[in-house]
Specification:
By secondary structure, chain A is mainly α. Chain A contains 13 helices and 2 strands. In chain A, helix 6 packs across helix 8. Chain B has 1 helix and no strands. Classes of the chains: A mainly alpha, B mainly alpha. The interface between A and B is medium-sized, with 30 and 23 residues.
């Protein structure tokens, strides 16, 4: 591996680490397409992406644990439910493959879900209060279905409902072939009323477990590029530390706004790629790549800028107004 | 010296996961020491103090 490539992977890892530490998502979602663009075979791209996500999430989880942002009860229930759900989701994919319409169904579902969650999150961040999420989570918390559990942030909710949400997220995760972070975090925040920082920390712990399992499966068949993972991790380890630290400084509503931006950019990128492939329009593939890399640079930059503005107690300067969502 | 390529794929995969975990832990501790040492002054500098 050339020195230039080492520098690229370390730098790219740093940006992804910031996003991962801050949002609890954005690992394989960004790394796998990047490796595909660079010419790595698809299974190596997926396997290396998973191994990288595992390594980064270990660091993110440790950092969030230090800040007291991990709820182990919630993580255990979610992990068990999601494991069952992912298996069910895979069976749905097999059935769709047998029917011959898997690609179109999965693409439409993926774009639709990213866009829906993105728009919902954006609306919530733009609203002066958080009435929608408060209403929904209060209704969920009012449902006394045993056994009830008390989570961090003094949230009392039914374990059966947590299990049900985990199961649905797991099914969607298995169906779409994604880690599930972009679904799990809003589900915990809006559905259960878990504070954003704890939702991120718990989500990262869950990703660590599923990432380890996924990486193991691919590594068994020799589909993990170790130098790529090692260099990406060298950058992301620092980035995850920065991202998790910044999530302690920056306002919760800012987190929601950036999160929505990432999801919407991802949704448009996937849609552009699919349409480009279907109608053989090369420029749409370029648009998709530009959106993925552009969103990584812009959003991680905005996070750092928001942190600096917060430290300086500046919300009137041009750049600080620009970074506020 | 152990020839890792002659080991069963499951053992090789477990070794790889262990290596990634080890690298992550070493980086966590290493960067932790660096940020503990430099973090406060960087924070002060960014905060304009």
């Amino acid at each position: 591996m050339s020195l230039l490539l080492v520098g690229f992977f370390v730098g790219f890892g740093l940006l992804i680490g910031i996003l991962f530490g801050f949002f609890g998502m954005g690992g394989s979602f960004l790394v796998t397409p990047a490796l595909l663009v660079m010419g790595y075979p698809s299974r190596v791209a997926v396997g290396s992406g998973l191994a990288f996500v595992f390594g980064t999430s270990v660091i993110g989880a440790l950092r969030h644990r230090d800040h007291g942002h991990v709820d182990y009860k919630l993580a255990v229930i979610m992990t068990v439910a999601m494991t069952i759900g992912i298996e069910a989701g895979k069976r749905v994919v097999d059935a769709l493959h047998a029917a011959g319409n898997a690609d179109i169904v999965i693409s439409v579902a993926y774009v639709g879900l990213l866009a829906t969650v993105g728009l919902f999150t954006l609306r919530d961040a733009r609203a002066s209060g958080t009435t929608t999420s408060v209403d929904l989570s209060e209704r969920v918390q009012a449902l006394e279905i045993p056994p009830m559990v008390t989570l961090r942030g003094d949230v009392r909710v039914s374990a059966s409902i947590i299990f049900g949400i985990g199961l649905v997220v797991g099914i969607l995760s298995g169906l779409l072939g994604v880690g599930g972070g972009f679904l799990l975090m809003p589900a915990m925040m809006y559905g259960l009323g878990v504070p954003a920082a704890i939702a991120v920390g718990t989500d990262i712990l869950q990703i660590t477990i599923s990432g380890a399992f996924g990486a193991f499966v691919y590594a068994r068949d020799g589909f993990v590029a170790i130098p790529v993972v090692a260099t990406l991790l060298a950058g992301s380890a620092l980035g995850a530390r920065i991202g998790a630290g910044v999530s302690n400084i920056v306002d919760e509503d800012d987190i929601k706004g950036y999160f929505a931006t990432m999801l919407l950019a991802g949704s448009v990128a996937v849609a552009a790629k699919r349409v480009g492939a279907a109608y053989d329009i090369g420029v749409l593939n370029t648009v998709s790549i530009a959106l993925i890399f552009g969103a990584t640079v812009v959003v991680s930059g905005a996070i750092l800028l928001a942190a600096v503005c917060q430290l300086r107690d500046d919300n009137a300067g041009f750049w600080c107004r620009l970074s506020a969502t | 010296m152990i020839d890792t390529l002659s080991l069963p794929p499951t053992v090789q995969a477990a070794g790889l996961i262990g290596a990634v975990l080890l690298e992550a832990m070493v980086l966590h501790v290493g960067y932790g020491a660096v940020t503990s040492a430099l973090g406060p002054s960087v924070k002060r500098a960014l905060g304009g103090e």
